[in-house]
Design a protein that fits this description.
The structure is a single chain. The chain has one domain. Helices cover 44% and strands 12% of the residues. The chain is globular, with a radius of gyration of 18 Å. The two termini are 22 Å apart.
């Protein structure tokens, strides 16, 4: 998908019944077309291998727009800790379908993740700074058991700071009352890496999602 469309993969988590993808593109249409290609290709290959026909995916993918910087990093950790949260492993490195080995820089070849772009988009100036922050924050979140479910990542139209999300909401005529606040976690402060602001999010139905795609 990333070779055929102008889409960069910043992270992924493949489980037995669903997939999380952290993607970046200048044009949202590229993500839509890219995922249509990915879903179709995966379904065709699976059906061919199993000698079956019919639907493979249970429904259309759900997408959430995320602000660069802290909020993107927060989402990255939430995805990476998915199988720790479910009690399947003690650390993301133990899950085969995780992008951990790429995000941490432990794999250097056959990469799916655009690590250089991820480093920039999470607000870091160097590979060394990012790697230290990533590994230490993962360790701290696991130690503190900061593993609570945050459904807003998959249920919202957009997640970011209040001003940014308000701007998104105004484009599709959703009022400020629609915004909700997610409490920050504590690990960033304890590591003295950066101050963690609150994340805000806005929800909407299928029409709001379509309106957002047209507005961007």
């Amino acid at each position: 998908m990333s070779r055929s469309y102008k889409v960069d993969i910043l992270g992924y988590m493949v489980t037995s019944n669903h997939v999380h993808l952290l993607l970046w593109a200048r044009d949202p249409a590229e993500i839509s077309e890219g995922l249509r290609f990915l879903e179709g290709t995966a379904a065709q290959k699976y059906n061919r291998r199993k000698g079956r026909s019919g639907s493979f995916w249970s429904g259309r993918y759900k997408s959430t727009l995320i602000q660069d910087g802290f909020h993107l990093g927060r989402c990255m950790f939430y995805i990476d800790l998915n199988m720790v949260r479910n009690g399947q492993v003690d650390h993301p490195r133990e899950w085969f379908g995780s992008s951990y080995v790429e995000t941490s820089g432990k794999r250097k070849r056959s990469l799916i993740v655009n690590r250089d772009l991820l480093i920039r988009k999470t607000g870091h100036s160097s590979e060394e700074e990012f790697t230290s922050w990533y590994e230490n924050t993962l360790k701290e979140k696991i130690r503190r058991k900061e593993l609570a479910r945050e459904p807003f990542w998959s249920e919202s139209l957009a997640v970011g700071d209040k001003e940014w999300v308000s701007g998104i909401a105004s484009r599709i005529h959703l009022g400020k009352k629609e915004l909700s606040r997610a409490e920050p976690s504590s690990s960033g402060k304890s590591l003295k890496v950066r101050e963690e602001p609150a994340s805000y999010y806005v929800k909407g139905g299928k029409r709001s999602n379509q309106a957002l795609s047209r507005a961007l």
